[in-house]
Structures are given as structure tokens and as C-alpha cells.
Fold this protein.
Amino acid sequence: MTNLHQHSEPAIRVEGLTKRFGDLEALAGVDFEVPAGTVLGVLGPNGAGKTTTVRILTTVLRADGGTASVLGIDVARRPDAVRARIGLAGQYAAVDGNLTGRENLRLIGRLTHLGRPRAMARADELLERFGLADAGDRLARTYSGGMRRRLDLAAALVHRPPVLFLDEPTTGLDPHGRANLWEVIEDLAADGTTVLLTTQYLEEADRLADDIVLINNGTVIARGTPAELKARLGSTVIEVGLDDDHAAARASEVVAPFGVRTPSRTGRVVQVEVADGARTVVQALRALDAHGLETLELNVREPSLDDVFLSLTGDRRDRDDEIPRAARPETLERSETRGAA
Amino acid sequence: MTTIALQPDTADVVAVPPVPVRLRTAVADTIAVQGRNLLGYIRTPQLLVFSTIQPVIFVLLFRYVFGGAIHVPGTDYVDFLMPGIFAQTVVFGAMATAIGLSTDLNSGLVERFRSLPIARSAFLTGRTTADLARNVVVVGLMCVVGFAVGWRVHTDVPSFVGALLLMLAFGYCMSWVFATVGLIARDAEAAQAASFPILAPLIFASSAFVPVSSMPGWLQGFARHQPVSAVTTAVRGLTLGGATTGDVLTAIAWCVGIVAVAAPIAVRRYRRTV
């Protein structure tokens, strides 16, 4: 994927964004930038603040503090100007089941003031592009989950927004539907659309995003390209089961040099994250053997998002180097307080 | 159609459009949303049937079952009843506004609309005007049913038309009350459940079905001075004869007062609804 950075101004800029819902601090100072024409994956568990961030950026919700701009336009001060330039596809397929696919798209065309002839032409064009041409005159309530999502995404594109927000676009889809939607998003990115995509799936962010921001508890806990993050997080998790706790404690020391971070131990099981899968596994096992430690169980797997978050939130040193370079002192303080609490 | 071309790629600065353009946009957006809502009614006919059958049952029930036991001095009970039935019909119809809005809120459609450059008011005005259009159909139908069971208009055509317009206006104003209910409830069942405690006293503790004088004294004060009674009284005057300007003005004042309070609350609530 080549990215043309035509503008020096980032397409999306978020600085020190805060939002509170009663007692819940949804956003505790979020900062990131998305260069024009790139795809940012915002990754995090449920309740991390992903959707709140998207809602603020799409002018649906107002932030309590901080600033957010899209194409250089402040979302709080000139929401209408922002709305004309963005598309939003949310967690729910926001299509009207009582309208046909075509009527849904025409409605959005009229509401974005394309004018009737252009709204009609655009609806036909999008139905074709999203493989819904045959289903275009069926009521959307008869669509499958995957078809509804595609129609929803098409609706977000009716007015050709240069910036697109996709909030967990594939949550709840079957693998086929997911792969299908991924292709569509890749095409959009290839056409130069700036995309902000939230997801709970590491795999999805890896596949689609140029850059990734990891959010937890309303703060950015890590950022980088998928490759950088994976290198830092370890691409493989090795679990070794030993004779007893004592052996496991020794094994933990033996395998430590191979890991990207301190191994963790639960009883007689040692877990270590390594950067370079197969080769390191062999080396680690040889080292255990050389120290006379017998491996009773071995489990090698890809790190799950849980591993990522555990490693990032569980290890303070790691977390601190991840606090953004550009972070404002205020943000730093907040995350410090949060970490201490 | 409006002619505001969106050229997001080239236009770096969008000036705020002048008021007439914004007004035209708001009207166009309202019509688009309204059309969508009406298509929804047409394509879920069970909703329309349900909301029509209920008042028809009330007509039959009060005309042939309870009516014999209710004595209204100086008039046929059916002539007394029909204005009350109209009031009940439009108020129950306004509940559809609450249900429709809460359904849309749950579907994520509102979230999408709020991220689009459409007039802020269009979502609510599109809903309430669609419900007004639906009320026109239902009230028309109720007239037919009324005539079939012996209802007669004892005045002239302008009074009759005025009575119908007053009813429809009242229904429209009540739609704004239930718009707020729908925005707060956020789930169709909750909206319906929350609507009923508002509807029931307004409709039944009123002059819609029985003369207020037949109620206990403590209830009469409320029953006389509430919107359903005011509108029913005015419509009775306009269809039975003997309408006073005061009755009609009181009814209009209620309508204006309701919409003046309810519409800003609904709009504010809509803006704040997540």
C-alpha cells in the first residue's frame, strides 16, 4: 500500500482528548494523528474508549477537554464543515430495514444534498461496487448480516467523504463476511481515503492498518506500525510446563534472554514472549535441556490481544516508554496517576 | 431540491450558509426523513392496522356497550362520543412518535444522521410530520366509522373542517411530547410503557367519553382543565353547534402551549442523546 502524503497537515489530529460519563472516565487524554491517505487502526478491548473517540471525531459527541480536528477543521467549533467531509459506519449496521438497499442509499444522498439525480446515480454505483446490485430492490430487513454491513459502509460513502470512520466494522460477522469487508476497506485505502478503524481484533488491525494505536482505560498505551508493535510485543508466546515450581523458577531465568520481556510464571508453567517464533523456540528448548530442565509440556501460540494488554498494562517500565513522545505534560501526569491508582 | 454541492476535496473553507438556504435545507431534509418514515409505515402495515383497530373498537364499545348507560343531557351519545374518540385517536397516535424515535435510536440510524451534514431539526420534524400524515389517514377513517354508526355533524362544512384541523394540530403537538418520551426511553417497549401513564389520565380523566359532571368533585378540577378536555369541548362545539370563541381559543392555546414547551425540550434532548 503506497501512501501519498499530499498534505503536511494530518487528516485527523487528536490532542489531549478527555471525556467523562458521570463517574466513568471514558477518555483520559488521548493523542494521535492520522496522516492523509493512511489507515489508522485503533485497537482496544471493550470499554477502552474507542467508540467514544470515534463519536467525538464524527461530531456526535462533544469532548470535555482537548481538541480534535478533521482535515484541519475543529470538530467542536465547526461540526457542519466536518460532517460534510466524513463518513461513519458504526458498530450497528445503521440501515433502515423498511427501505430497500437502493432507497437507503438514495436517502443518504438526499440528506447529504447531492441532488436527486446524483443521489440516484450514486446509489446504483455503490450497489454495484458492493455486490448488492441484485439485492438493491429488496428491503434491507431481508439482508444477511454481511450484506447489511456492506450496505452500511456504502451509505457512509455516498457523499464521497475523504475521511472515513469505521467503528468495529466486522464485529459479529462470519469469517467470509469479514474477509469480504476487508477487501472493500483495502480498496478504499488504495483510493486514498483516510481511514480510522477501531477493532478488537489484532489480526484485523495488522491486515488493514498502516499505523496502530492501542487504547486502554481511555489512554493510548502503545503506538506504532503493526510490525513495530509485534516486534515489541513478541510475535510468539511460548508456554513451557516443568516438573515443579523450583524447576520452573530456574527455567524462567534460563529462557529470559530469549524473551522480549521478563517471562511470567504461574506455578510450574513459564510463559515467555519471543520476537522470532520458530528459531527462538528451538534455542530456548536447547538451553533448557543444557541446564538439565525437562520440558513436560510445550505450547506455542500467537499472542492474543489479552497477552498484549496484559504485557502492556502489567509492566510499568514498558508502559512508560510507550507514553507518546509528543504527549503533553498534562497527559503524562494523567497516565501516571492512572497507573498508580 | 437544494443545490448545495459538496466538494470536500477542493473546498477548504465552507462558509456558513445564509438563513434562507439553511431553511430550505431544513425543509428538504425534513421531507426526506418524513418520506422515509412514511415508507416505514406503509411497509409495516400491521402498525397502521393496530393503531386504527383500537379506536374503532372504542367507537363500537362506547357506542353500543357503555353508551346506553351514559346519559348526556341534550344530545345523542354518539355525537358526544365522536369528538372524544378523535382526541383519543390522535393522542394514542402520538405514542407512535415515541416508539418510532426510540426504535431509530436503537438501530444506530440516529448516530449516522448526526454525523451527516443534515439540518439538526430534520430528524424530529421528519418524524412528527410523518406522524401527522398518518393521523390524517386515521382521522379520515374514524370519520367514516363514525358516520357508519350514526354520528352526524350538526353544523356547517367550515366548522367541521375546523374541528378536524384542530384535532390534527392537537395530535401534532402531542407528538412533540412523546418525542421526548421516545428520546429518553430508547427502547420501543420502554417508550410504550412510559407513554401509557401519561396517556391514560389525559384521555380517561377528561370529557372525552363521559360528562365531567359525572366525576367526583376532586377529579373535576383536573378533568376540566386539561388539554384533551379543552380540545374535545371545542370540537364538540364545532360539530354539535354552539361553539364559543372561548372554547376554540382555549384549545388552540393548549396546542400552542404544549408545542412551545415540548418541542424545545425534545430538540435539546435530541442534541444531547448519545
